[in-house]
């Protein structure tokens, strides 16, 4: 499995966990906030990987 797919799988698992925590504890609970921050970082990691992949494919303009 490629790295972006692994990250996407981790994002989906963490999104489901966030949903579960929010349903069980409410949106204002610290557990929900912490899980949201974990999910945000995974999403950022995915976008950094995608940006780096595109940046490396670019051809010099000169």
Automatic annotation (TrEMBL):
This is Aspartyl-phosphate phosphatase Spo0E family protein. It comes from the Bacteria. SUPFAM superfamilies: BAS1536-like. Gene3D superfamilies: Helix-loop-helix DNA-binding domain (4.10.280.10). Pfam families: SpoOE-like (PF09388). InterPro entries: HLH_DNA-bd_sf, Spo0E-like, Spo0E-like_sf. It comes from Paenibacillus silvae.
């Amino acid at each position: 499995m490629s790295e972006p797919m692994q990250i996407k799988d981790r994002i989906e698992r963490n999104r489901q966990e966030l949903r579960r925590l929010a349903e069980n504890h409410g949106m204002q609970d610290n557990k929900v906030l912490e899980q949201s921050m974990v999910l945000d970082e995974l999403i950022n990691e995915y976008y950094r990987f995608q940006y780096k992949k595109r940046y490396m494919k670019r051809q010099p303009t000169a």
